[in-house]
Amino acid sequence: MKKNKTKIANVALMMAIILFFSACAQAQKDVSKEIQAQNDILTDAIINGDQETVMAYYNSQSTFLPPNGQSFMGVETISMVFNQMATMGVDKIVYKTKKADLHGKVAIEEGKYQLFAQGEALIDEGKYIVTWEKQGNNWIVLQDIWNSSLPLPPQASKEDTLCLITMKIKAEAWEWQKEMAADWLAISEKENPGLAARSANYMDLNPDKNGNYTFHSLVAPYHHGKDNLDIRDVLLLKYSESEADAIMKKFNEGVLEHRVHYISPRF
Q: Mind telling me which residue stretches traverse the membrane in this protein (predicted)?
């Protein structure tokens, strides 16, 4: 009698295990196409400066986990990241969903990304894992972790320096200056691949009382004899002398201050 009860108990346990894993398998669903569609909407909104649409994908619990830095959370902080991308001259973003599996209301996405300036100069590319949650009819990003697939830039040597460029730009010239900077970076990257990876751009998010912005660009390391940061020289790689002069005239009219600092590393 005991043996029969034991057999029945074992069979019941096996059935429960089978049903459990069967339910888990059924609960998992491929939502790659749906997530890719969300990525397409999100990237278009980022490039077009549609902050309302972009921020609709995030909430106070959304967390970014960037490479080589601390994680940060919340809509306001994440908004600053996308503003920073604009100052880098990014005008094309590609998010490519490799796979996305739905577990209940949560989807785990694996994908690849690419960032471009002037639509053709590759600034960065890499891979990411994003956790999405379906809240009502909307998808919300809970966690976003990514890292670049590009090789690390070369380290500074005794012959190299850091180059810090600081500009104060008139409010009415800011949008044109961003476009011009992106064009310049795209030309420079073709001539000297890897320059974009060694460059970091920062903009004060709040203009001064006159509406003017301060823009900082750091090239680290800056390679003497190889990196040409002269604006007109770089423009001449793409434009005629008269065209380059016209661009420089407009550039100078929009800049209140332009300072370049070279800092030698100590060993």
A: none
For the cut 70, the answer to whether the pLDDT of residue 157 exceeds it is no
Residue 190's domain spans which residues? 161-263
Which positions ≥6 away from 164 have C-beta within 8 Å?
A: 216, 217, 218, 260, 261, 262, 263
Going by C-alpha positions, the residue among 186, 182, 187, 178 that lies closest to residue 237 is: 187
> Rg (Cα) of the chain, in Å, rounded?
25
Report the CATH number that the domain containing residue 140 is assigned in CATH.
Answer: 3.10.450.50
Q: Is 25 exposed, middle or buried (0-12, 13-18, 19+ CB in 10 A)?
A: exposed
**Res. 9: pLDDT tops 60:** no
141 in any annotated domain: yes
Domain boundary among 115, 148, 181: 148
- What amino acid occupies position 43? T
With contact defined as beta carbons under 8 Å apart, do 38 and 116 qualify? Answer: no
Q: What is the biggest distance separating any 2 CA atoms in the chain, rounded to whole angstroms?
A: 101
When divided into structural domains, the chain yields a total of 2
